[in-house]
Design a protein that fits this description.
single chain; alpha+beta; 9-stranded antiparallel β-sheet; 18 strands; 21% helix; globular
Length: 379
């Protein structure tokens, strides 16, 4: 692996708010009414910018110079790669939301293990510093807090999954964007990180010298040629790609209130791609099958998958106890691609309920998946 290069592993922040109870535009549209100057200030703080935007009746989606932003009436998801300072955007977003009459209900931050940790700016070089920064940035009303690192126990895989969660409740009942009356509808997020991409497939995400088309046009061509298109979310999804010079690619796909996003850093020696999908409800068969479709586009040698469920626990059963069906579904999607599960872990977090984490590598050695349920190291 190269000693230095572009950092593909993203930092991800999700903020959930309660909408004003007085009705009117702010109660209906919430964060989507955020002024352009406030959005720009938040992204400036994180050191990224909007390069493409799209939206539908449910939410707005932005491709950024480093990854993506999704804005629902009561939920914002900011995902940035490279050496961005994502957490610097938190105070700006909280101030802008407060001016719209919104109150923070939960905060969740997650990331993998960086390829080049020494290049990260404060507070991102050390997870303990990130935790301290978030503890100081979120309001005291979010009194249920926990942070932890879900491990990978296989020697070949150095991936770890870092999670911070703070909530006004312990059971994930933190509000909802899809107008469910009790505000406690479950929600899922699937995050996939891929390294050591197939070199031939990675070459699809390089610009051809002299191509005079726009980044949007080339990005849409990459979407179609790679097979990411509707297969990344559903046949109904509208996908918007963007190509970077001299290489690199981002795509957001919208399907009702669900989204999928893909980001690619194809350089030899530190190639990386990510896939994420999220929406209300549970991770159904279509969402889980899409994981396999996305991974097949890149044929990586190493994959990690985290699945997060937000919502109430099941009849008092500890959330991590319910991880086995998720582990099995992800393994079923990836094993036909020649990937073997090397480790799996699960942990409960306030406001996020369950976070599962699995690592996979190509079948170069025989190995069995080792379980680490309820075994995250904490900060």
């Amino acid at each position: 692996m190269a000693s230095s290069g572009f950092e593909g592993f993203e930092k991800r922040l999700e903020l959930v708010f309660s909408l004003p109870g007085s009705g009117g535009e702010q109660a209906r549209h919430g964060l989507r009414l955020m002024p352009v100057h406030a959005l720009r200030e938040a992204l400036d703080a994180a050191q990224c910018a909007v390069v493409s935007a799209a939206g539908n009746a449910a939410f707005d989606a932005y491709v950024l110079s480093e990854s993506s932003l999704f804005v629902y009436p009561s939920r914002a998801v900011l995902k940035t790669c490279g050496t961005t300072r994502l957490l610097r955007a938190v105070p700006v977003l909280l101030r802008a939301a407060g001016e719209l009459g919104l109150e923070l209900r939960s905060c969740r931050y997650s990331r993998g293990a960086y390829l080049f940790p020494e290049a990260q700016p404060f507070p991102h070089a050390d997870f303990a510093d990130e935790v301290r920064y978030l503890d100081g940035a979120v309001p005291g009303g979010l009194r249920f807090r926990r942070s932890g690192v879900l491990p990978s126990s296989h020697g070949h895989v150095s991936h770890k999954w870092h999670v911070y969660s703070a909530s006004t409740s312990s059971d994930g009942a933190t509000g909802d964007d899809e107008h469910v009356a009790d505000g406690a509808a479950p929600r899922f997020t699937i995050e996939v990180c891929m390294t050591e991409l197939d070199r031939g497939l990675a070459r699809q995400f390089y610009l051809t010298p002299g191509d005079g088309r726009t980044s949007h046009a080339i990005g849409d061509e990459m979407t179609a040629a790679s097979g990411l298109g509707g297969g990344a979310l559903s046949p109904r999804a509208l996908a918007f790609g963007y190509a970077f010079a001299p290489c690199g690619y981002s795509m957001n796909a919208l399907d009702g209130a669900r989204y999928a996003t893909v980001h690619v850093t194809p350089e030899d020696g530190h190639s990386y791609a990510s896939y994420e999908c999220a929406g209300a409800g549970v991770a159904d068969d279509a969402a889980l099958a899409a994981v396999g479709k996305a991974v097949a586009v890149f044929r990586p040698a190493v994959v990690s998958v985290s699945v997060t469920y937000a919502g109430a626990t099941t009849a008092g059963i500890p959330a991590a106890t319910n991880a086995a069906p998720v582990w099995a579904a992800i393994a079923e999607a990836l094993e036909p691609l020649g990937l073997a599960c090397r480790s799996q872990a699960a942990e409960s977090f306030p406001g996020a309920t369950t976070v599962t984490y699995q690592t996979f590598t190509s079948y170069d050695t025989s190995a069995h998946c080792s379980d680490n349920a309820n075994n995250a190291s904490s900060y």
